[in-house]
Amino acid sequence: MLVYGDRSELADPRSCLDRLGRDLAALSTQPPGLNRHSELVFALIEAGRLLQGVADADFRLVGADRRTPGTREISALLQALAAAVCRSWDSEFGGPLMLPDVPSPLGLPETVELRTPEGFAYYGLYPEAYIDAARRLRLSGPPRVIGIRSIGTSLGALAAAALGAPPPTTVRPIGDPADRRLAISADLAADLLSPRNAHFVIVDEGPGRSGSSFASVAIWLRARRVPLDRIAFLPSHAGDPGPQATPRHRQVWTGAQRVAADLGPALPRLLAAWAEDRIGPIEGPLIDISAGAWRKRVYPDESAWPAVIPGQERRKFLASVGGSTWLLKFAGLGVEGRRRLACARTLHAAGLVPEPRDLIHGFLIERWQSDRSPLAVGAKPMAAIARYLGVRARLLPAAEGSGADLAQLFALASRNCRLALGAEAASALDRWKARLSALEARVRRVATDNRLDRHEWLDLPGKPLLKADAVDHHAGHDLIGCQDIAWDVAGAAVEFDLDPPAAARLAAAVGRAAGRKVDPELCEFLTLAYLAFRMGQVKLAAESAGAWPGEMVRLDARAAGYAHRLERRLARAA
After folding, report:
1. Could you give the CA distance from residue 481 to residue 120 in angstroms, rounded to a whole number?
2. How many CB atoms lie within 10 A of CB 59?
3. Whole-angstrom Cα distance, residue 375 to residue 479?
4. How far apart are CA 135 and CA 169, in angstroms?
5. What is the pLDDT of residue 574?
6. pLDDT in tens, 417-428
7. What is the distance between the alpha carbons of residues 507 and 520, in angstroms, rounded to a whole number?
């Protein structure tokens, strides 16, 4: 199934360095505390993204990882920032910063592609966890750190700083996702393998479904006679690689030393301490409502629970303060968290979402609506939903290129239909091929909501309907991104099971609120794409929900519902 997509942006590396210089100058004037630490971590993440972009651009040029004057100077900057983060973390955000000067390397490319580090943006991965994890390693020689790009650039620098090691080498494993391999220049290989008694520390997020990125580095080292007892992994979790891992990959994974970088049970305690400055003294421990546990506080019994994707739900906690309850939800470190706070404030000012209080080191604090109720069975509050979608579209325009184009959505729909429903059903989509270019010219992108499920709406007694979880799905770890408002119209029509006349009325009402007409032909195509996307998304989630058997049943039923409705629409169009 085609569901996921990487986020990236094109940038001038010199402009990135100039911006980092300004950020560090401003940071040097800030008083000690969590805010200063968060800004320091933001600088670390941005420097890591820049190193990733410059190294990847050179890799594309020569077909191998190597060191260049540009990567060497940016790596030194990143290492100095990592050392500053370590000092800030060790001193509980106090003490002097000792910030580095920003270099002006020669020979940088005109443009680089900066990738979004998924763990920092979506999955609650804290770089500070790698400081403690690195220090828990048992090393038998001088440490040499290898960071796997993308996110391993900054994580590797932190591990190296924590260990007192030289700046790490970064590598980009290539090839089949289930069987990655390395391409390293002879000069870099010779430098990396010196001294011969080094203990190699491989750093990345994951492991994922195959674990092949971690394994590819270990296999490269083993092929150069590095014994397995001098190879260590610093992953983001303690689990094994997923079902696509080969026996060879599992052998190196289980044979090497591993220390998981996870704040784990310390996170709620840390988060409570960070939040008290913003919301006041917290009564009792935080309540973890991640992985769908929030449903216990909303629905009378489990039989009414909607399906969720536990592994993709963001970390969430509830805090009680003086009779009020606050939701602390991971929104992203660095620029991602800032964007989501700004989005929440914009939507709240229009009366569309709950009150956001602040952002604390990646967690968005917003008011928890304790008096919320699930929408009544069969309820279809289309007037309120139309106002939400239309006003949102006016308030949150998006740049071109910030989401999948219609050709990509067509490819997604075709692939998912073929895999789930067969080639004959998928062929009914072919009539859209000739229309895609004309339709694309009519697309006007906005920061769409992208998640219009019935359980996402907050029904409050005597108050307007509010939308929950409204700030991040247009920037999530999937292919969709920002779309024309017709995408959300299609999504609402699907999730509320509207017949064609009701869907047309919703589109007209959204158009009036948005100040522009919703294109009916575009809406028709996007309805097919929406159904194919959600079908694929939920099917993949069901396949990975073995640890949650009850969730697997709910997800299977949800996927079957999307598939049935998609099949009916395709049959009518055939």
Report:
1. 18
2. 18
3. 29
4. 19
5. 66
6. 999 999 999 999
7. 8
* Tokens of residue 422, six digits: 């067969």
* Three-state secondary structure of 324-387: EEEEEEECCCCHHHHHHHHHHHHHHHCCCCCCEEEEECCEEEEECCCCCECCCCCCCCHHHHHH
Token look-up 């200063």 returns 36
Domains in the chain, start-ordered, CATH in brackets?
A: 8-258 (no CATH), 283-367 (3.30.200), 382-573 (3.90.1200.10)
CA distances from residue 111 to 14, 16, 240 in whole angstroms, order as listed: 9, 11, 37
Quick one: three-class SS letters along 26-56?
Answer: HHCCCCCCHHHHHHHHHHHHHHHHHHHHHHH
Q: State the Cα angle at 316 between 312 and 317, rounded to 5°.
A: 160
What count of other Cβ atoms lies within 10 Å of the Cβ of residue 381?
16
- Quick one: which of 22, 51, 50, 41 has its CA closest to 97? 41
In 3-state terms, what secondary structure has residue 309? coil
Side-chain-side CA neighbours of 273 within 13 Å: the count stands at: 8
**239-257 core/surface letters (b: 16 or more CB in 10 A; e: else):** eebeeebeeebebbbeebb
Length of the chain: 574
- Strand boundaries in 236-331, DSSP class E: 257-258, 287-288, 316-321, 324-330
User: Which segments in the chain show pLDDT lower than 50?
Assistant: none
Which is nearest to 552 in space by CA: 563, 564, 540, 570?
540
DSSP conformation class of 448: -
- Residue 87, phi then psi, degrees to nearest 5: -65, -40
Burial (CB count <10 Å: 0-12, 13-18, 19+), residue 515: exposed
The whole model's pTM is what?
Answer: 0.92
Phi, psi angle pair for 378, to nearest 5°: 85, -10
Instruction: Quote the CA–CA distance of 321 and 191 in Å, as a whole number.
Output: 55
Can you state the percent helix, strand and coil of the chain, rounding each to 5? 50, 10, 35
Closest CA relative to residue 523, chosen from 487, 478, 568, 493: 487
Residue 570 sits at φ, ψ, to 5 deg, of: -65, -35
Q: Which of 429, 481, 479 is nearest to 450 (CA)?
A: 481
Per-residue confidence (pLDDT) for residue 176, from 0 to 100:
92
pLDDT score at 70 = 96
| The pLDDT of residue 480 | 97
Pairwise CA distance, residues 72 & 123, whole Å = 30
Residue type for 266, please?
A: A
**Predicted confidence (pLDDT) per residue in 178-209, tens digit:** 899 999 999 999 999 999 899 999 999 999 88
pLDDT for the residue 1: 81
